[in-house]
Design goal:
The protein is mainly alpha-helical. Helix content is 69%, strand content 6%. It has three domains: 7-134, MgtE N-terminal domain-like (MgtE N-terminal fold, Alpha Horseshoe), CATH 1.25.60.10; 146-250, CBS-domain, CATH 3.10.580.10; 278-451, Orthogonal Bundle (Tetracycline Repressor, domain 2), CATH 1.10.357.20. The chain has helices at 7-20, 23-31, 35-44, 47-56, 59-68, 71-92, 95-102, 107-116, 119-129, 136-139, 153-162, 188-193, 200-203, 217-227, 247-265, 278-305, 307-312, 315-344, 349-382, 385-415, 425-446, 448-451, and strands at residues 146-148, 172-176, 182-187, 211-212, 231-235, 241-246. Helix 5 (59-68) packs antiparallel against helix 6 (71-92) and helix 16 runs parallel beside helix 21 (425-446). 29% of the residues are buried.
Length: 452
């Protein structure tokens, strides 16, 4: 970005240059922008200037722009460019990104676009699309450097130089045998430190961490994070190397999965952004909320059944929201901790039991602390020690139950191969409301004679 200009100044300057048709001056500014900043400028341009903005960009610049746009804007750009120009842009884009983009289109549109691309690129994209969504096969790219095991280091360096413009990452070179099976890996550092006449098979690492084409993308992301890789080779069941997953794709996966978990935790269903229309946003959020509405009626039924107790000791009503709210809060906290932990590691039975007892102790500590505080407050406020004990003991028990509910439910779902994030915060909160009110009024009902 030009150092002397702010973002708004750049936007205004670009608009002026577009209006005046000054393409050379326009290019001077664009050449100094990073791809992200170029996409930012495109996004904030008035719609009437966007067509000319795209017209003034070269094919390489359009390719960089496409990489920084979301799918909706990518599809819009392809539509504006037309089949001939868009096919040239797609030829230069990373094939995994093309596969992800085309998956949003109708089959006939996919066929039309692929037919205009170079045959080699088109075949690779079709191969990627054939793998299920959210797998390593769909996520991988074919733009990597492989070398035969019989190469010398000099031959490997020569090939590396030849494919430097094509390969997405040059940190690793993957070694294959005569059947194209992955047999080793060498780093760029290995080549620099090695002797030019050394054989690749003498300096390569033969124990290669890899993913299979049907490996879940979350597991592939965990592998890259676990071993601090910048890329991860992907092989077929027979061991043949077919692609690599790069760290920038993993970052996208992590953000996508995190957004999905947040949506599930908040019971909002499909993605809702700032730009989602009110009717669409309401439609996506209503199903869960209507379900929880009916579940919440149980809370009203519990309160109604203890109406006499409430009439006898009106002060009990004051602490109802506190008991229910605190229970839901601690349950949601535990749920978030467990779901976050499950994303980063696989839990076995021993770890699950350890986690259960850890959260049990946490619930007891939190419950005792909050219970003592609320007992003192209730006693000072009402001058009734029994009321304080009812509220304090109820809060102690409900906080323990809330903590355990937020721990057990996602663990059980995980055990049965169900995404634990579907144990949404609102659902656990509603369930905890029911249990907390039952405990609260149950204890109050037992001690009613001493409360009056």
């Amino acid at each position: 970005m030009p150092m002397e200009m702010t973002e708004n100044e750049i936007t205004l300057t670009l608009i002026q240059l577009l209006q005046e048709g000054k393409k050379p001056q326009f290019q001077e500014i664009i050449d100094e922008l990073q791809p992200y900043d170029m996409a930012h400028q495109y996004h904030h341009l008035p719609p009437k200037h966007r067509n000319k903005f795209l017209l003034y960009l070269s094919i390489k610049q359009l390719t960089k722009l496409m990489k920084e746009l979301d799918k909706g804007n990518q599809l819009d750009v392809l539509h504006k460019l037309g089949i001939e120009k868009s096919s040239k842009v797609l030829d230069l884009m990373e094939n995994d990104n093309i596969a992800s983009l085309l998956s949003e289109l109708a089959p006939e549109k996919i066929e039309e676009i692929l037919s205009e691309m170079k045959q080699e690129e088109s075949e690779v994209v079709q191969s990627l699309i054939s793998y299920p969504p959210e797998t390593a096969g769909r996520l991988m790219t074919n733009r990597y450097v492989w070398i035969p095991r019989h190469y010398t280091i000099r031959e490997a360096i020569d090939k590396l130089k030849h494919f430097a413009d094509i390969a997405e990452y040059l940190n690793y070179l993957y070694v294959i045998d005569e059947q194209k099976k992955l047999v080793g890996v060498v780093s760029y550092r290995d080549l620099l430190l090695g002797n030019l006449q050394d054989m690749i098979e003498d300096v390569m690492y033969s124990k290669v961490i890899h993913a299979y084409v049907y490996t879940d993308q979350e597991e592939a992301a965990r592998m890259i994070s676990r071993y601090d890789f910048v890329s991860l080779p992907v092989i077929k069941a027979n061991g043949a190397l077919v692609g690599v997953i790069t760290v920038d794709d993993v970052i996208d996966v992590v953000m996508q999965e995190a957004n999905e978990d947040i949506e599930k935790l908040s019971a909002s269903g499909k993605a809702i952004s700032f730009n989602t229309k009110p009717l669409v946003a309401a439609y996506r959020r209503l199903p869960w909320l209507i379900l929880l509405l009916f579940v919440g009626l149980a809370s009203g039924g519990i309160i109604s059944s203890f109406e006499e107790t409430l009439q006898s000791v009106v002060a009990l009503a004051f602490f109802m929201p506190l008991i229910a709210g605190m229970t839901g809060n601690t349950g949601t906290q535990s749920l978030a901790i467990v779901v976050r932990g499950l994303v980063s590691q696989d839990l076995n039975s021993k770890q699950s039991i350890k986690l259960f007892f850890r959260e049990l102790m946490v619930g007891i500590i939190i419950g005792v602390t909050c219970g003592i505080f609320i007992t003192i407050i209730a006693y000072i406020w009402q001058g009734n020690l029994i009321l304080g004990l009812v509220v304090g003991s109820s809060l102690l028990l409900t906080l323990i139950i809330g903590t355990l509910a937020g721990t057990i439910i996602p663990l059980v779902l995980y055990k049965f191969k169900v995404d634990p994030a579907v144990a949404s915060g609102p659902l656990i909160t509603t369930i905890n409301d029911i249990f907390s009110l039952l405990i609260y009024f149950g204890i109050a009902n037992i001690l009613i004679s001493k409360l009056i």
